[in-house]
Design goal:
The complex is a heterodimer of chains A (80) and B (380). By secondary structure, chain A is of the alpha+beta class. Chain A has one domain: TusA-like domain (Translation Initiation Factor IF3, 2-Layer Sandwich), CATH 3.30.110. Chain A has two helices and four strands, in the order E-H-E-H-E-E. Chain A has helices at 22-32, 48-59, and strands at 10-14, 38-43, 62-68, 73-78. Chain B folds into two domains: 3-112 and 254-329, FAD/NAD(P)-binding domain, CATH 3.50.50.60; 116-252, FAD/NAD(P)-binding domain. The mean pLDDT of chain B is 96. Chain B has helices spanning 12-24, 26-30, 68-71, 122-125, 132-143, 164-178, 200-212, 256-260, 299-317, 359-376; strands at residues 3-8, 34-40, 44-46, 65-67, 77-80, 83-87, 92-95, 99-102, 105-108, 113-114, 148-154, 185-190, 215-218, 223-227, 232-235, 240-242, 245-249, 252-253, 269-270, 284-286, 291-292, 330-335, 341-346. In chain B, the strands form eight sheets. Chain B has a five-stranded parallel β-sheet. In chain B, strands 13-12-11-17 form a four-stranded parallel β-sheet. Chain B has ten helices and 23 strands. The radius of gyration of chain B is 21 Å and the shape is globular. By secondary structure, chain B is an alpha/beta fold. The two termini of chain B are 33 Å apart. In chain B, strand 7 (92-95) and strand 8 form a beta hairpin. Classes of the chains: A alpha+beta (80), B alpha/beta (380). The A-B interface holds A 13-25, 27-29, 31-32, 44, 47, 51, 54-55, 58-59 and B 157-158, 162-163, 192-194, 197-200, 202, 220, 222, 236-237, 251, 266, 273, 294-296, 298, 328, 330, 332, 344, 346-352.
Chain lengths: 80, 380
């Protein structure tokens, strides 16, 4: 269940992630994913809201949506 | 009726768990209410943190190994065999030599594997210290490396011991300084994201130390190809880096068993992060590097997870409701040179503080590496 229009192919639960953190969790999945895969990254680290778009921009993938679920955020990513 | 507990894997998680169960379920084991079998395809238990010291000649590969039979309590059956398939519906395992085996409770603890072949040129062009052969080859290379560009590139995400790459470059810096070679050796550390480490406080600390010690930091660097002939590392982000000696933290893989058994779709097992129970099958636990939980792939994690699972299994065997949970506790020593270290401790949702490195913490790390063999026996 989510409030986004996107239906993820892969969901990464990085809520309360410590070491090495949500963005590293995301990169691991992105590297393995086929182009066009929609990934939902669930994160409770507010830093992810800036970290993740910055990396996506650098690596050439798309941020589709960011949803505030109250105690965590869902970032929807599409790989290119 | 005897309940069968089968543990697959003889690393930190599997071995600590076996010994904890021997202690916790001692009376039940004695009277035959339960039996515990540990299956491993390696006669030796390997303590991987020792490998960090091998390239610098401070430890040997032999220091990392002890026979499993010497570490595991005699109340536990140890079988040297390989599990080739898991069927969680019929609760059976196929063993390469022993054939079909049934279980009532299964714990998978087979760890992470290295897959340098996933990055073209890495196996030929790169070194690493994440396994015995790699650590020895890197030791030989370092011994004759007197000038040029040493590049450490964190390629695998996830990878074991997330602090080890930082430790390696800080140790290498110190090691070359001690030899009077540092002016002739440039050191670069590359990391996949926009800072030096996934944990902000570690990244802040490492960046400051790197600047002080003239270690170049290259961020947003995800190596996707190595050209061993020309000594060039290429990244997903379109960057290139020339190297003379490449230490590449290789891609890691979980287990095909996990994927084939439907316990996770990419080799890492999906589990409840607090109970370590599979989210796809009944009576299956996964601990250590194989479990996909949001903390480090590290020995301390496997150790604490094993304690939780031992308690949960003991409750199950006794017909009680399991209450023990794992809170993400992770403990991590970080070497900051050849004779100083710092220390981190955290759990799910917490941000660790990096304390000032000191000699006593370095000695504590070396001391712990020796007393680790008591940990494996379930005594510490």
């Amino acid at each position: 269940m989510n409030d986004s229009e996107y239906d993820p192919d892969v969901t990464i639960d990085s809520r309360d992630a410590t070491c090495p953190g949500p963005l590293m969790d995301l990169i691991g999945k992105v590297k393995e994913a086929e182009p066009g895969t929609v990934i939902e990254l669930q994160t409770s680290d507010s830093g992810s809201k800036s970290d993740v778009p910055e990396w996506l921009d650098e690596a050439g993938h798309d941020l589709l949506d960011t949803v505030d679920n109250g105690d965590y955020w869902s970032l929807f990513v599409r790989t290119n | 009726m005897t309940e069968h507990i089968v543990i697959v894997g003889g690393g930190t998680g599997g071995t600590v768990l076996a010994n904890r169960l021997a202690e916790t379920l001692g009376p039940e084991l004695e009277r035959g209410a339960v039996d515990v079998t540990l299956v491993s395809d390696d006669r030796n238990h390997v303590y991987k943190p020792v490998f960090l010291y091998v390239p610098f000649g401070k430890k040997t590969v032999a220091d990392a190994e002890r026979p499993l039979a010497d570490l595991v309590d005699r109340k536990i059956a140890v079988e040297i065999d390989r599990v080739e398939a898991v069927d969680t519906d019929s609760k059976r395992l196929d063993l390469r030599d022993g054939g079909p085996t049934s279980y009532d409770h299964l714990v998978l603890a087979t760890g992470a594997g290295l897959a340098p072949e996933k990055v073209p040129g890495l196996a030929e062009g790169g070194h690493h210290f994440y396994g015995p052969d790699g650590a020895e080859a890197l030791r030989d290379e370092l011994a004759t490396f007197t000038e040029g560009h040493l590049v450490l590139s964190v390629i695998g995400t996830p990878h074991m011991c997330p602090a080890a790459p930082v430790e390696f470059v800080l140790m290498a810096d110190d090691w070359f300084r001690e030899r009077g070679l540092r002016d002739d050796v440039d050191i670069t550390y590359t990391y996949p994201i926009q800072r030096a480490h996934g944990i902000q406080s570690v990244a802040d600390w490492a960046s400051e130390v790197f600047a002080e010690r003239d270690i170049r930091l290259e961020t947003f660097f995800n190596a996707d190809e190595v050209d061993p002939d020309d000594g060039v590392l290429h990244s997903m982000e379109g960057k290139e880096l020339d190297y003379d000696l490449l230490v590449g933290i290789p891609p890691h893989v979980g287990s095909d068993l996990v994927t084939a058994a439907g316990l996770g779709d990419d080799g890492w097992a999906d589990v409840d992060r607090h109970t370590l129970e599979s989210t796809h099958a009944e009576d299956v636990f996964v601990i250590g590097d194989l479990a996909d939980v949001p903390t480090s792939k590290a020995g301390s994690v496997a150790h604490y997870e094993a304690g939780t699972v031992a308690d949960r299994l003991a409750s199950r065997v006794r017909g009680q409701v399991p209450t023990a949970t794992y809170d993400g506790k992770t403990v991590c020593f970080i070497e900051s040179g050849m004779d100083e270290a710092t220390f981190l401790e955290f759990e799910y949702g917490s941000e660790p503080t990096v304390r000032a490195p000191s000699k006593p913490i370095h000695w504590a790390k070396l001391g712990y590496n020796e007393s680790y063999w008591l940990t494996a026996r379930g005594l510490l």
